[in-house]
Specification:
- With 261 residues, this protein is α+β, with helices and mostly antiparallel strands.
- It folds into 2 domains: 72 residues, no CATH class; 154 residues, 60s Ribosomal Protein L30, Chain: A.
- Helices cover 40% and strands 12% of the residues.
- The chain has 7 helices and 5 strands, in the order H-H-H-H-E-E-H-E-H-E-E-H.
- The protein has a 5-stranded mixed beta sheet with strand order 1-2-5-3-4.
- Strand 1 and strand 2 form a beta hairpin.
- The N and C termini lie far apart (86 Å).
C-alpha cells in the first residue's frame, strides 16, 4: 500500500444525437437514389431507340428465354413470337387444331405442312373436283373458308410475317376472256388474304401476295396433276434478335405512353 497508486484514465465517448446523429445518412441515401432514378428516366427518354429497346429487353427478359414459344414472359394479350427454332412446335400445334375440324377426314390428304428454309409452309392442295376452291373459281368454297378461317385465328396470334402464293397446273384456263392461269393464281391468293384478314390475321402481317400460275409446279413430272393447283401460306422466320426487338419495342412504347400521361 506504500507504493505509487495506479493512474486510472476514464475516457468517455460523447454521443452524437439530434442533428448530429446518423439519420441524415439514410435520408441522403434515399434522396440520391431518387435523383439517380430520375436521371436514368430522363436519359432513357433522350437515347436512341435501339438503346432503349436493349435496356427494356434486359429488364423484361434477363435470362434470355422469352423467345421460346409459349413462354410465360409474355403478358396478357401479347402475341407469342415464333423464332426459327420454334417452327416445328408451331407445325404440331397447327396440325392438332386442324385435326379437330369437323370435316377433317374429307380433306386431310389435301393439307401439307412442312418446315422449309423460308419458313413454315402450309399448302392447301386441290383435288380433281376441287377441294378448297371450286374449279375455275377464285373465291374459296365452304371447305376453304373453314380452313382459312381456322388458320387465320391461329396465325393471327403471331407477329411473324405471312406470304401467300397462288399456283395452278399447266392446263389452260378456259374461262373469261383475257383471263388465264396468271390471273386465277393471283386472285385466289388475294381472296385467301382477304378472308384471313377478316378472320384474325393482322393488317400488317401479310408481307406478300403472289401468283405463279404453273411456273412452280409441285409435281413437275406431271404438270396436269390437280395438286399443282394450290394455295401456299408461308410463315416467315423471325430470328431471336428480331423477336426480342419486337417485345422490347412494345414495352418502351408503353413506358413512353405512361410518361406522357
Amino acid at each position: 500500500m506504500d507504493g505509487p497508486r495506479p493512474i486510472i484514465v476514464i475516457k468517455k465517448k460523447a454521443a452524437h444525437g439530434g442533428p448530429h446523429g446518423g439519420a441524415w445518412k439514410v435520408a441522403y441515401a434515399d434522396f440520391v437514389t431518387a435523383m439517380m432514378a430520375l436521371f436514368i428516366v430522363l436519359w432513357l427518354l433522350n437515347t436512341s431507340k435501339p438503346v432503349r429497346e436493349a435496356i427494356a429487353g434486359y429488364f423484361r427478359d434477363p435470362s434470355g428465354t422469352a423467345d421460346k414459344l409459349g413462354t410465360s414472359t409474355t403478358g396478357p394479350g401479347e402475341r407469342v413470337v415464333v423464332a426459327k427454332d420454334d417452327m416445328t412446335k408451331l407445325k404440331e400445334e397447327l396440325e392438332k387444331a386442324i385435326r379437330q375440324m369437323p370435316n377433317f377426314e374429307k380433306f386431310k390428304d389435301q393439307i401439307e405442312i412442312k418446315v422449309t428454309p423460308e419458313g413454315l409452309r402450309i399448302e392447301l392442295l386441290e383435288s380433281a373436283t376441287g377441294t378448297f376452291f371450286n374449279l375455275g373459281n377464285s373465291e374459296p368454297n365452304e371447305n376453304g373458308k373453314e380452313l382459312l378461317s381456322l388458320l387465320a385465328g391461329e396465325l393471327g396470334k403471331l407477329p411473324n410475317k405471312i406470304s401467300m402464293e397462288g399456283h395452278t397446273d399447266s392446263k389452260p384456263f378456259n374461262g373469261k376472256r383475257n383471263y388465264g392461269n396468271w390471273e386465277l393464281s393471283v386472285d385466289r391468293s388475294n381472296s385467301a388474304r382477304r378472308l384471313m384478314q377478316q378472320k384474325g390475321l393482322g393488317d400488317k402481317q401479310v408481307a406478300q401476295v403472289r401468283g405463279f400460275a404453273d411456273q412452280l409446279l409441285r409435281k413437275p413430272e406431271d404438270p396436269f396433276d390437280p395438286s399443282n393447283r394450290r394455295i401456299s401460306l408461308i410463315v416467315q422466320y423471325t430470328d431471336k434478335q428480331d423477336a426480342q426487338e419486337g417485345r422490347t419495342a412494345q414495352v418502351v412504347k408503353k413506358i413512353e405512353s405512361s410518361e406522357k400521361k
